[in-house]
Structures are given as C-alpha cells and as structure tokens.
Task: inverse folding
C-alpha cells in the first residue's frame, strides 16, 4: 500500500511532472503561510526588495537627466528593457531563486535529507524557503514596464501581442534555467556559488541597457553563448522596431521559444548530472 | 595584541579561496557592464560631473575594487558580531578584558587587508588591461603626493565604513531581525556614497543631501583623491571631512555601545 502511495516511479512519466508540481505547490504554500505569520516583517522586507530593485531605475533616470538618448535609445525604450529584464528575472527568482542557496546545503551535507524523501529533489529545493517578498521586484519592474508601454505608443497587432507574451514567458524560462543550471554547478563547486550571480543579476543588469552600448563580442556572447539576448533584447528589436546591431537574420527576433527550450533542456541535463555526482559530506 | 588579531583575521579570510575568486569574477563582470553604461553616457556628455571618459571608467573600476574592501554590500567582519549579538554569545565577549570596538576594528582590518590583495587589485588589473584607466598624473612630486593621499583616504574610508557598520551591527541589541536595517544601510550607502553614479552627476538637491551624509567619505572621496579631482587644499579638506566623520561616528559607536551593554539579552536563558 505504502509503495503505491509514495511510488510515483510506477506511474507513467507525465504523472511525475504533475506529482512534482503538486509537491512544489505544497511546499510553496507552506512557506507563504510561514512568511505571513510575521506580517510586519513580511511587508517591510517586501518594500525593501521593491526599493532595492527600484534603485537601478533611479540610476537610469539620473543618467537621462543629462541626455535624451543612451546608445541611441530613448528613456521609454530603455525603460521597456529595464521592465522586461526585471520582470522576467523577478519571476524566475520568485519561482526557483531559492536554489542559489544549494551551495550551502551541499557544504553542510543537508541535501541527503532531500534525496531520501519521496518527492523530486528539484521540486523540494526550488520550493525550499520560497520567498514571497521577492514579488517586490516583479511589482516594481511591472510598474516601470507599464509606464514605458504607455509612453511608447506601440501599434499593437496580434503578432506583437504574441511576441510580448512570449517575451515574458520565455524570458522567465531562460532566467529560471540559468538559476537551475547554475545551482546544479554548486554540486561540483559549492564554494564558488557566487559566480552564478554574474549570470543572473549581472545578466539582468546588462539587459536593462540597449545592446548598442556594449562591445559586439559581448552581445554575440549573449546570443550564441549564454543566450540572455533572447530574454528581451531580440524580441524588443521587433517590438520597438529597431535595427539589430549585429545584423542577425530577422527570425532571431522570434526565436526566443527555441532558446528557452534549449536552455531548459541544458539546465535539466546539468541538474541530473549534478544530483548524480552528489557525494554528501562524509561526516 | 590587536595586531595579532588583525593578522589572524587576514589568515582566516584567506582560507576561503574559491569564494574569493567567485567574488572577484562577479565584481569584474559587473565592472564591464557598468563601464559600458558609463561609456555610453560620457560619449554623449564628455566631462560630465567633472570627469573625462578615462576618469569615469577608472571611477567604475575603483568602485568594483573597493566594493568588497569597504564591505559596502554586507557588514564585513561585523557580520560575526551581529551573529554573536543575535545568539547572545556577545555576553562572553563583554567579559573579556578588551575594548569591543577596537577588537572588531582589528578583525575588520585583517579582512580588508586580504580584500585589498585579491578583490581590489585583480578587478582593477583586469579593468586596466581592457580599458585605459587614469592613474595619478603630473610631476613626480604630484604623483607621489596623490598616492600618499589615496592611501590616507582609503584608511580613513575604511574607518568611516567600519564605524557605520559597527552602528548597524549594534542595532541588533534592540532589534532581532536586522535584514531591514541592513538593506536600508546598503541602499543609502551605495547610492549616496556614489557607488552607482558619482554624486556630482546627481541633481543639485540630491547632491546636497549626499554631501551632508557620511557615506560620501566612504567611497566618493577616496576615488576623487585618486583621480586628482581636488587641488592640494581641496585634498586636505576632503581628508579632513573623512577624519571628522570617522571621529564623530566612532564616538557615536562608543556611546551606543555603552547603552547597548545594559540591554544584553541572552537568548535561551
């Protein structure tokens, strides 16, 4: 009996996903309840998160006090990049951002307890210490994005709307994959966990500014290396009707779903390799 | 004795090799990103805020170098003091025949020394290889004077930063959750210290606020001294402002400390 109840392995593969998501949901709800048990602390930390992510935008606004264009892009256009970068990073951070604490758990050997439970490790670790306060960045970036859209006056067509929705979804998946893939690397180098910040927070900071200001090789690296350009730069070129500084074929602007799929697959493979190489601490 | 504490602290921090290199890597990546944003801005507005392009780029890399040295994002060695206050272990420290403020300054100085050799030098070297950085210029006397003034400004900056962080850590005697205070400290010190943008680029009212706050003595002043932003009198004045803030804030730290020890709450009995 017990085996039937705790043994998702005996079911078809698609049940594994449903099971994992359901477990993730349970863990997330538990942490939300825990956070709301101290409402004052929760609201303060959320307001703090909101202010912290807003600081980057203050910097951009101060820059635009001295100029009308940065790298050839206007303030509403840069605000669009800022909003989409922050929104997608914020959503990914909200859903799976807790995983960047994995390095600590690997050092302590506390991943053991996760692996013996009859719940997928990824679902447990992604939901662990789920921090609802991280919604602060989502709200703040969303507000900037709405402001930029109101100023940009885009001619909305069904295709534009589709590209916009896909930008938010695929961007979240790409950043989420970087979080998961980066965390998988903690299994091999637990002490160097901070490197991941370069790609998540550093990447998001980079995407807040137009691609035209960076050296071409760096932009190339975000297209063909860690594909962060597909988060918002390439779709934004289409949505805002701007020229590609790299002169890539125009279908690259619509290729974000492909990039997101590739990222998620790569992150999944890295994760599997990481979990299998886990050796505990030996004490 | 404090020298011994300082050396031990240096050694302790030097054992976290992988974490150090990870931090160096991250600071360098952010250095590149910030440099390109500065280049874009200074391209349209050369000499903005009194800096030419080369000085502006140097400003970025000094910032990335000093970020860890001055512990802008975190409390540095005082994170340990904060943990000890929260757990009540600080009661044991108070029994010891040492001055708390000096003890932790020695620990923090050891940490800063290690950060200087790794996190400050390596990103600056990488930045120097990738971009044209501005080193002190002029006659031999000017160059030597600038370097001496920079070293003095850095020592004073570390003192001011330490004094501020000591105050932040001491709030733990009254508050149990320090995350809010730390976040406020981080944001105000980064923004008004000039870490994101030089305060000379701010709108006038905001710049006036920044000039009235101590955070400017932590970063903007040593950076400006290195970039020879001031003449001789200006440099002495700037060092004087730093010294003033260091004395006031360290004094305030002692005052708060004498009140705080009366409030010691040992958790768990």
Result:
């Amino acid at each position: 009996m017990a085996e039937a109840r705790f043994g998702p392995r005996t079911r078809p593969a698609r049940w594994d996903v449903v099971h994992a998501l359901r477990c993730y949901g349970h863990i997330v709800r538990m942490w939300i309840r825990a956070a709301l048990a101290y409402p004052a602390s929760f609201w303060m930390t959320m307001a703090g998160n909101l202010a912290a992510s807003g600081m980057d935008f203050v910097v951009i606004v101060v820059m635009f006090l001295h100029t009308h264009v940065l790298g050839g892009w206007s303030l509403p256009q840069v605000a669009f990049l800022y909003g989409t970068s922050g929104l997608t990073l914020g959503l990914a951070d909200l859903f799976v951002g807790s995983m960047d604490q994995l390095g600590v758990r690997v050092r302590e050997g506390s991943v053991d307890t996760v692996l013996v439970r009859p719940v997928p490790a990824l679902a447990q670790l992604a939901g662990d210490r789920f921090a609802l306060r991280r919604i602060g960045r989502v709200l703040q970036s969303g507000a900037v994005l709405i402001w930029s859209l109101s100023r940009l006056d885009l001619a909305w067509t069904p295709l534009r709307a589709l590209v916009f929705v896909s930008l938010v979804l695929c961007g979240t998946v790409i950043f989420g994959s970087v979080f998961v893939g980066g965390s998988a690397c903690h299994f091999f180098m637990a002490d160097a966990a901070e490197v991941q910040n370069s790609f998540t927070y550093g990447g998001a900071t980079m995407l807040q500014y137009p691609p035209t200001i960076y050296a071409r090789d760096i932009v190339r690296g975000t297209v063909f290396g860690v594909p962060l350009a597909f988060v918002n730069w390439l779709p934004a070129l289409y949505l805002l009707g701007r020229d590609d500084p790299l002169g890539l074929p125009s279908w690259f602007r619509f290729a974000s779903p492909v990039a997101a799929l590739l990222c998620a697959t790569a992150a999944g493979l890295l994760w599997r390799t990481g979990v299998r190489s886990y050796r505990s601490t030996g004490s | 004795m404090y020298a011994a504490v300082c050396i031990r602290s240096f050694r302790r921090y030097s054992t976290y090799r992988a974490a150090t290199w990870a931090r160096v890597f991250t600071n360098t990546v952010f250095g590149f990103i910030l440099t390109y944003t500065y280049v874009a801005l200074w391209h349209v507005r050369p000499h903005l805020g009194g800096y030419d392009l080369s000085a502006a780029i140097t400003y970025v890399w000094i910032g990335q170098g000093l970020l860890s040295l001055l512990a802008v994002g975190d409390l540095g060695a005082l994170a340990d003091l904060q943990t000890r206050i929260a757990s009540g272990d600080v009661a044991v420290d108070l029994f010891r025949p040492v001055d708390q403020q000096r003890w932790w300054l020695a620990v923090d100085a050891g940490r800063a020394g290690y950060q200087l050799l790794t996190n400050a030098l390596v990103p600056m070297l990488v930045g120097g290889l990738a971009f044209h950085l501005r080193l002190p210029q002029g006659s031999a006397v000017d160059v030597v004077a600038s370097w001496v003034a920079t070293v003095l400004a850095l020592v004073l900056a570390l003192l001011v930063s330490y004094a501020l962080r000591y105050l932040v850590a001491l709030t733990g005697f009254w508050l149990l959750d320090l995350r809010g205070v730390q976040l406020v400290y981080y944001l105000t010190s980064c923004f008004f210290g000039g870490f994101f943008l030089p305060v000379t680029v701010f709108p006038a009212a905001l710049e006036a606020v920044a000039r009235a706050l101590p955070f400017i003595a932590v970063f903007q002043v040593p950076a400006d001294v290195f970039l020879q932003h001031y003449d001789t009198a200006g440099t002495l004045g700037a060092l004087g402002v730093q010294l003033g803030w260091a004395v006031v804030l360290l004094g305030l730290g002692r005052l708060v400390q004498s009140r705080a020890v009366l409030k010691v709450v040992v958790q768990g009995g």
Notes: Chain B is about 70% helix and 0% strand. The CA atoms of residues 114 and 233 of chain B lie 32 Å apart.
